[in-house]
Specification:
- The complex is a heterodimer of chains A (353) and B (335).
- Chain A is mainly alpha-helical and 353 residues long.
- Chain A is globular, with a radius of gyration of 21 Å.
- Chain A starts with a helix and ends in a 5-residue tail after the last helix.
- Chain B is mostly helical and 335 residues long.
- In chain B, 52% of the residues are buried.
- Helix content of chain B is 77%, strand content 0%.
- The chains are: A mainly alpha (353), B mainly alpha (335).
């Protein structure tokens, strides 16, 4: 009997059983529906603006692009890059949030709270001040490095304190590191007289993103999405706790390093293109986990779609609040995100430090 | 506790403040030599030095001292009330609330044509006080769940801070470039309006509320023992706490209205004071006031001189020095 049981439940079988258990049957349905909603919203976003453009024109421009047609030019130069950028950045931030919360098992983990965004912002300010002619790809590298610096500063607080990085400590350390880095970048910006650029950019903004950045973001999206997809099985097992994951043959250290690299890449790219757009990485994972459960193979793509949808919608709202002026979309996501953060703070702040 | 006798310490601190004050008056983009300084003070200096000293540097010096003292005491009170060493008006979001209300007041209610400058300056602290109070109420209400735990208070404060910041950004972007820059500078904490009217508007708040906090220090000491013990010793804890929060918010508001959102000063000053004189608030409050004044004075001197002739917001300097200290506290605090 013992032997039979042992043979039945070797590591691989256990792993598969666990993964199966996590599988949610409705996940696929949710995913398809959300994808459809995302597409509709994106079309809405493309057609809405100072010049209203209807669906037939959009379809026509996709089928046979006409250089003479002003509407086609508006679409190709302004609307398509913008909506794609919004969708990609939303997806990047949401995936980063999911991975961070999965790895740290900390409900408050997210790019804007963990100092990743402000670190990237700081290095961007540095780059803008000293090397104003840095290429878009160069800026992404700067932001990537900065994201790493910010995150490692916050993590080292956890490393040095005796009881590790509890949710509350994480939020506090993130706030302090952000304050430090932001004050440094504002100093730089004021000294080099680029305040308004940087502060608009701090508020998060996806208007007027050049098509070249979007192309670059697309390439990074492919890399990021594929690697996140490859990591998703391990992440599901990691969510059971370090010991269990180790027992099931996961190399937890390796998974962690890969996860962090993906987060840095995605957040760094997002920040370098659009500035710091907060709270998407915090909210989305909580919502998607509630909806489809802990299976990261579905959770990651689903969160990406929902994150993309949220930012595309927020971008439409940013254009509608105060036309013809643009409202920074980061301020809007903060207005949605703050109540959510407060809700989490109420729930988590009980005795967790 | 290093100093048993607080009188000598306070005297020494005041002496250092005066010394640094003189240094601060003398340094700047246009330097004034010590002999010129004495001459000008006696009324025999050149026109240029007189203008520089009496119209620019001296009011600025007083504002730094008064606002620093106010923030130091406000931080002491908040840390005493929440029994949390990490409390600070800036981190809790009270600065942001006061800042929002000041910006709104300046753009929509009061305009310079109709109101006299002094009248505007005198009403500004009230606007800041109301905004700060609003923020404090928000924090308290959201954090309330069968009572308030210190840590939830701070966590909620961070959120409220971000919220007020976002609302501010929305308003700020409707302004023109110069107003935008002014607000940006001021929000990061800057002694922007160094007129005597600002000094006068700050005076009553500081000279009424700091003695009042000193008077309340016995209550603060008892609150440290925990709510039950304090109630047993005849203190209406909830009511006292609300009164003390109001004092702290008023002090913060007054300093925000003239010096902008300076974070981490209300955090650091009480800590250094506690290291020097121990936990009794009778000793803590005056020491924290002196240390707050000293820190802001020195930071302002750095802010004026680091990139002279252009000037940095002093709040950035304070945050740059204060944030690492906060992180250090975060690492070492256990509870």
């Amino acid at each position: 009997m013992e032997q039979i049981r042992k043979r039945q439940l070797n590591k691989k079988a256990t792993k598969q059983r666990i993964l199966k258990r996590f599988q949610s049957r409705s996940a696929a349905t949710y995913f398809v529906i959300s994808l459809a909603i995302l597409l509709v919203t994106m079309i809405l976003s493309v057609s809405y603006g100072a010049a209203q453009i209807n669906w037939t024109v959009i379809r026509e421009s996709l089928m046979h692009f006409d250089v003479q047609n002003t509407q086609h030019l508006i679409l190709y130069d302004l609307r398509f890059p913008r909506v794609l950028a919004a969708a990609l950045i939303g997806a990047f931030l949401a995936i980063s949030g999911v991975i961070m919360q999965g790895l740290t098992r900390n409900p408050l983990a997210s790019p804007s709270i963990m100092g990743v965004s402000s670190g990237a912002g700081f290095m961007m300010a540095l780059a803008l001040a000293f090397f104003p002619h840095t290429s878009q790809f160069g800026l992404i590298l700067w932001a990537f490095t900065g994201a790493g610096i910010g995150a490692s500063m916050v993590f080292s607080v956890g490393l040095f304190s005796k009881r590790g990085l509890t949710p509350v400590k994480l939020a506090l350390a993130g706030a302090a590191v952000s304050a430090l880095l932001q004050s440094a970048s504002t100093m730089l910006a004021m000294y080099f007289n680029v305040t308004r650029d940087i502060s608009f950019w701090y508020a998060g903004n996806i208007a007027g993103i050049p098509a070249s950045s979007v192309r670059l973001a697309l390439i990074i999206a492919v890399i990021g999405f594929v690697s996140a997809g490859l990591l998703s099985r391990s992440l599901t097992l990691m969510s059971l706790g370090d010991e269990v994951a180790k027992g099931l043959g996961q190399r937890t250290g390796l998974v962690r390093v890969c996860g962090i690299l993906i987060v840095l890449l995605l957040t760094g790219t997002a920040v370098s293109i659009s500035g710091t757009i907060g709270f998407i990485g915090l909210i989305i994972p909580h919502i998607t986990k509630k909806m489809i459960g802990m299976d990261y193979r579905w959770l990651i793509p689903f969160s990406a779609v929902i994150g993309a949808w949220l930012l595309v919608t927020a971008d439409i709202a940013a254009r509608m609040v105060n036309p013809p002026y643009e409202t920074p979309v980061g301020a809007l996501t903060a207005l949605i995100g703050v109540p959510f953060f407060l809700f989490l703070a109420r729930r988590e702040g009980g005795g967790l430090i | 506790m290093i100093f048993k006798n607080i009188h000598y310490l306070i005297l020494a601190l005041i002496f250092i403040i005066i010394l640094m004050g003189i240094l601060s008056l003398a340094t700047g983009h246009l330097a004034i030599s010590p002999s010129e300084l004495v001459e000008t003070a006696l009324g025999e200096g050149s026109r240029r030095n007189e203008l520089l000293l009496f119209e620019f540097r001296l009011p600025r010096l007083f504002i730094a001292i008064l606002a620093g003292a106010a923030l130091g005491v406000a931080g002491t009170l908040l840390q005493g009330i929440t029994q949390n060493e990490l409390a600070d008006p800036g981190i809790l979001g009270i600065n942001a609330g006061a800042g929002l209300s000041v910006v709104l007041y300046l753009t929509y209610v009061s305009n310079r044509e109709t109101t006299s400058p002094l009248g505007q300056m005198m009403t500004l602290p009230f606007a800041a006080f109301l905004g700060g109070l609003l923020a404090a109420c928000c924090i308290y209400i959201v954090a309330w769940k069968n009572g308030v735990t210190p840590i939830r208070l701070i966590l909620v404060g961070i959120g409220v801070n971000a919220g007020f910041g976002a609302v501010l950004t929305l308003f700020q972007l409707r302004m023109n470039q110069s107003a935008f820059n002014q607000v940006t500078v001021w929000l990061s904490g800057s002694i922007w309006n160094a007129h005597w009217s600002a000094v006068i508007s700050l005076l009553p708040w500081v000279f009424i509320l700091i003695p009042l906090s000193l008077y309340k220090s016995r209550t603060l000491n008892l609150l440290q023992l925990g709510d039950e013990m304090a109630t047993g010793l005849g203190i209406n804890t909830e009511r006292e706490r609300i009164k003390l929060v109001a004092i702290a918010v008023a002090l913060t508001g007054a300093s925000v209205s003239v010096a902008g959102g300076i974070s981490f000063l209300g955090l650091g000053a009480p800590h250094i004071a506690r290291k020097l004189v121990g936990n009794k608030h009778q000793r803590l409050v005056p020491t924290a006031a002196c240390i707050g004044a000293l820190i802001l004075l020195i930071s302002d001197m750095i802010a004026r001189n680091l990139f002279a002739p252009s000037e940095l917001p002093v709040g950035l300097i304070v945050a740059f020095l204060g944030a690492p200290y906060f992180i250090y506290l975060l690492i070492t605090t256990e509870a």
